[in-house]
Design brief:
Elements lengths: L34 H4 L5 E4 L3 E2 L11 H14 L5 E7 L2 E6 L1 H9 L4 E7 L3 H13 L6 H14 L4 H8 L3 H9 L5 H8 L5 H8 L4 H13 L4 H13 L19 H14 L3 E6 L2 E6 L4 H12 L3
Parallel strand pairs: 2-4, 3-5
Antiparallel strand pairs: 1-5, 3-4, 6-7
Length: 307
């Protein structure tokens, strides 16, 4: 199902209201707790054609195979978990959460689905939709970052308040927001899971955007691990040289590639101490840290022992 052509919902734009509250668990905003709905167990069957898409939905991509699998389950068992909507007018609703379930229900051929009907203004809708999506495990890092940014800007939250809302500390929120400073090419790769969050952090440690793109392309072409990417950045900073482009070595300097980085890590694990490699042109030196005579003897014994 494509994002536009096959999208069964109509998206409407509207201004933001005022006030924020935890509405998803609030009986005061739930129409289904009123007497006329209690007889049906608090859930109302509504026509899918009467549901408009959530204009604040931060999630833009839905995997077709996963939708089809959910659709097959719905054909057999029905939609077990109701969606959540808000009343917009006579027999008209707007989705708050559950777009994936709604799309799968349409694939399954359902005309009506169970729903909780709530009262919410636009700003409350935005906050609920963003936070509900942030809690999903399969949301990619860029979608999370964009959701954080919208919560900060459109809901006028501070980073501390945002952290409390989504159950994350401020540093985690800041790390996600920094991803939006990456070049578009790198953001797209992160969104498509071609690189990890760890790779993105390594790339962010390089200040120049052009150098960031060079490092990203090298990570992809050489299938570098996060440790390998970090090592490249570390060596470039030590020698005050730019990050080498894919397939190229910096002049008169040996390269610490991913395999060598792994070997260094294995040696560090064996000797239980840090190992520093300092290139000097085509040569270099290895420095092993130790605190005292006893630790030096232990390290030397570890190196001498081949078991």
């Amino acid at each position: 199902m494509s994002k536009e052509k096959d999208n069964p919902f109509k998206t409407k734009k509207s201004g933001l209201g005022r006030g924020l509250s935890a509405l998803l668990n609030s009986a005061e905003t739930d129409i289904t707790v009123s007497p006329e709905y209690r007889a049906s167990g608090g859930v109302q069957l509504i026509e899918i054609k009467d549901i408009d898409a959530n204009p604040f939905q931060p999630r833009t991509e839905f995997e077709q195979k996963a939708l089809e699998e959910l659709s097959e389950s719905i054909k057999v068992h029905g939609l077990i978990q109701p969606v959540t909507v808000r009343k917009m007018g006579y027999d008209k609703y707007q989705l708050i959460s559950g777009e994936r379930r709604t799309r799968a229900s349409i694939l399954a051929g359902l005309e009506r689905i169970p729903a909780y009907i709530r009262i919410a203004n636009d700003q409350e809708m935005l906050e609920m939709a963003l936070i509900e999506n942030i809690q999903r495990e399969n949301l990619n890092a860029i979608e999370v970052a964009l959701s954080y940014k919208r919560l900060l800007e459109e809901c006028q939250l501070k980073q501390e308040e945002l952290g409390d809302r989504v159950g994350k500390d401020r540093s985690t929120v800041s790390n996600y927001l920094r991803l939006l400073k990456l070049p578009d090419e790198v953001q797209i790769a992160l969104q498509q899971n071609r690189i990890s969050m760890g790779h993105a952090k390594a790339i962010l440690s390089v200040e120049d955007p052009e150098e960031q793109v060079i490092l990203f392309r090298r990570i992809e072409q050489e299938s570098l691990s996060v440790r390998g990417a970090e090592e490249i950045v570390k060596l470039a900073k030590q020698d005050k040289q730019p990050v080498a482009a894919p397939g190229k070595k910096q002049s008169n300097q040996f390269e610490i590639n991913d395999a060598l980085s792994l070997k260094r890590a294995l040696i560090e694990a064996k000797i239980q101490s840090s190992l520093t490699i300092k290139p000097k042109g085509k040569k270099g030196e290895i420095i092993i840290a130790f605190k005292n005579q006893k630790e030096l003897e232990r390290i030397l014994n570890s190196l001498a022992n081949n078991d």
